[in-house]
Specification:
disordered C terminus, mainly alpha, 6 helices
Length: 155
């Protein structure tokens, strides 16, 4: 799991550098030569999609998504842990539904290509199952941690 986390973080850093470089190139050429390059806007848009969905997966790992936990936070002990784990499992299921739907979309868009870059749109749409699959995995891991009881060891 630590290897997956490191790989996702490294990919996000590379994507962020690519997006910033693309935008800087676009702006610089627009003001210096008055002729911007068309593919930089499309590249930054597609990289942003990947970055946002991978970032959402990382946010799920850190429990950084918005949530209303009025009832589960008030419950303590085994009941509270079980209810929190059950809610996280429902959340995992919802992420899996979206990831599956994204996988179903890939064959449909595989024959289409982006206008300026010419890459298959399935590369862009692959961000949906990748990001939501990562969210599902990280949320499932958090639900399992809720069920692990750390007993204080007696001396």
């Amino acid at each position: 799991m630590n290897l997956l986390h490191r790989a996702v973080r490294a990919a996000m850093m590379i994507l962020m550098v690519a997006m910033v470089a693309s935008v800087i190139l676009q702006v610089a050429l627009r003001y210096l030569t008055y002729q911007p390059i068309a593919w930089t806007e499309e590249l930054s848009r597609y990289v942003f999609v990947w970055l946002a969905l991978l970032g959402a997966g990382e946010a799920a790992r850190q429990a950084a998504h918005f949530s209303v936990d009025l009832l589960p936070s008030r419950l303590s002990g085994a009941k509270g842990r079980i209810i929190r784990a059950a809610l996280l499992l429902v959340e995992t299921g919802l992420y899996l539904v979206v990831a599956w739907s994204g996988l179903q979309l890939l064959p449909i868009v595989s024959t289409q290509h982006s206008v300026t870059l010419g890459v298959p749109l399935s590369v862009v749409y692959l961000a949906i199952p990748a990001g939501f699959g990562l969210m599902a995995f990280n949320t499932f891991c958090r639900s399992m941690k809720q069920l692990v009881v750390k007993e204080a060891s007696a001396p």
